Amino acid sequence: MTPLISILVLLASTIVGYLLIRNVPSLLHTPLMSGMNALSGVTLVGAIAATGLALLSARGGELWMSQILGGIAIILATINVVGGFAITHRMLRMFKKKKH
């Protein structure tokens, strides 16, 4: 895939994602976030796999760039997973009955 096509796919998916999320009713945000946390977990596994494959196929000077980009992808995906579960947990706490 050429870099131009990759940029166009990223741009199109960003616009479609924004339009979809904007039209979600507020009642569905908590269940939707829980589902997105599962998808973020898949993203984390994909980042780890892509980093491993890049390290196996990298040649000489490309190795350090693969390690840096792969590490950044893993860190960002991990932050997304942990933050998503923390926010979902906080939102679900609002619906619990308070003990007297």
Can you summarize this structure?
It contains three helices and no strands. By secondary structure, the protein is mostly helical.
Discrete helix count: 3
Based on Cα principal axes, name the global outline.
flat
The helix fraction, in percent, is over 70%
Main beta sheet, described? none
The Cα radius of gyration reads 18 Å
N-to-C span: 60 Å
Q: How many DSSP-defined strands?
A: 0
H and E order: HHH
Strand content: under 5%
**Ranges with pLDDT <50 over ≥5 residues?**
none
Instruction: Provide mean pLDDT, rounded.
Output: 81
Structural class: mainly alpha
Describe the 3D structure:
The longest helix has 32 residues, at 62-93. The protein is flat. Helix content is 81%, strand content 0%. Helix 2 runs antiparallel to helix 3 (62-93). The chain has 100 residues and is mainly alpha-helical. It has helices at 3-22, 29-57, 62-93.
What would the keywords be for this entry?
single chain; 100 residues; mainly alpha; 0% strand
